[in-house]
Amino acid sequence: MNLKKTLKYFSLAAVSVLAIGALVACSSSSEKKTEKTKVEVGTVGTTKPFSYEDKDGKLTGYDIEVLRAIFKDSDKYEVNFNKTKWASIFSGLDSDRYQIGANNISYSEERANKYLYASPYAKNPTVLVVRKGEGIKSLDDIGGKSTEVVQGTSTAQQLEDYNKEHSDNPTKINYTDGTIQQILANLNDGRTDYKVFERITVESIIKDQGLKNLEVIELPSDQQPYVYPIIASGQEDLQKFVNKRIKELYEDGTLEKLSQEFFGGSYLPDAKDIK
Q1: Does residue 259 lie in a domain region?
Q2: Domain that holds residue 102
Q3: How many domains, in total, are found in the chain?
Q4: For the purposes of burial, counting CB atoms within 10 Å of the CB of 17, is it exposed (0-12), middle (13-18) or buried (19 or more)?
Q5: Buried b or exposed e, range 86-97, using 16+ CB within 10 angstroms
Q6: pLDDT value at position 230?
Q7: What digits encode the pLDDT tens for the residues 129-139?
Q8: How far is the C-alpha of 151 from the C-alpha of 89, rounded, in Å?
Q9: Regions of the chain with pLDDT less than 50
Q10: Nearest-CA neighbor of 197 among 177, 181, 213?
Q11: Is residue 255 within 8 Å of residue 79, measured between CB atoms?
Q12: CB 128, CB 202: distance < 8 Å
């Protein structure tokens, strides 16, 4: 091979190397652009119709499907769901194992001091559930009566505050790790006297489990309790994204559609309360 041909050969080889390098660089750049941030969601998965497994074992429910809609087609985030115990939702947020907690979660000052609240995406009035004919008609009648609660819930806090104000005749609080289905079944069978919980969940369970001994009594309230996704501290960008998407889903009718599907009616927050 003469010198001219040799130089031409090396010149072509150099061009090929540069071209391959450029393709690799472009490919690498493209991969970086498509890489998404994983958002881990902690949920109990046993509180129908908010978070539960369907007959095929797939996690679904209002909370779950709203979050799927929030992150659908996002070019920045990818959502993943994790079934866990109630208390572990919050310890997971504390350790950044989870970035979002979603399981019919209401507002409390204690949580607001530790986590970021997104906009509400449902409202769920609080009710009193009792056995028929037992004479309990309001919270004025629960002194000396027994109930089961999961520690750390808003209901537990409400009843603990009640006992501070009624120390002469407190209600009997039995702490449990049982599901709301088990708690209502125990109430139906006479093992406890009442349960304070949210209307949507208890009416769904009473219907599904055929708990014919129970009745639901509306409780007076200054405001409708809302349902929120809560976000780990320090995740302000994620909070902004979630708020933006909740507003869009409210305006395009997606939240109304999911409310009708899972709740059998319209249980949406007031528009003014969606940021």
Answers
A1: yes
A2: 37-123+225-264
A3: 2
A4: exposed
A5: bebbbebbeeee
A6: 98
A7: 999 999 999 99
A8: 13
A9: 3, 5-7, 9-10, 12-15, 17-19, 23, 28-30
A10: 181
A11: no
A12: no
Peptide bond into 49 cis (omega under 30): yes
Sign of dihedral through CA atoms 108, 110, 111, 112? Answer: positive
Q: At what angle do helices 199-209 and 180-188 cross, to 10 degrees?
A: 60
Query: Reading across the β-sheet that carries 51-53, which strands appear in turn?
Result: 46-47, 51-53, 59-60
Can you read off the two tokens belonging to residue 180?
A: 């709301």
Please name the amino acid found at residue 132: K
> Which residues is 92 bridged to in the sheet?
none
CA distance 259 to 268: 7
Residue 130: phi and psi, rounded to 5, are -140, 165
pLDDT of residue 6: 47
Q: Are residues 112 and 230 in the same domain?
A: yes
Question: Which two three-digit tokens encode residue 256?
Answer: 């109304």
Residue type, 258: L
Cα atoms found within 13 Å of the Cα of residue 177, Cβ hemisphere only: 4
Q: Would you state the structure tokens that stand for residue 13, as one six-digit string? A: 């080889």
Rg (CA), the chain: 26
The CATH number covering residue 157 comes to: 3.40.190.10
Do 130 and 119 fall within a single domain? no
Q: Are residues 153 and 196 in the same domain?
A: yes
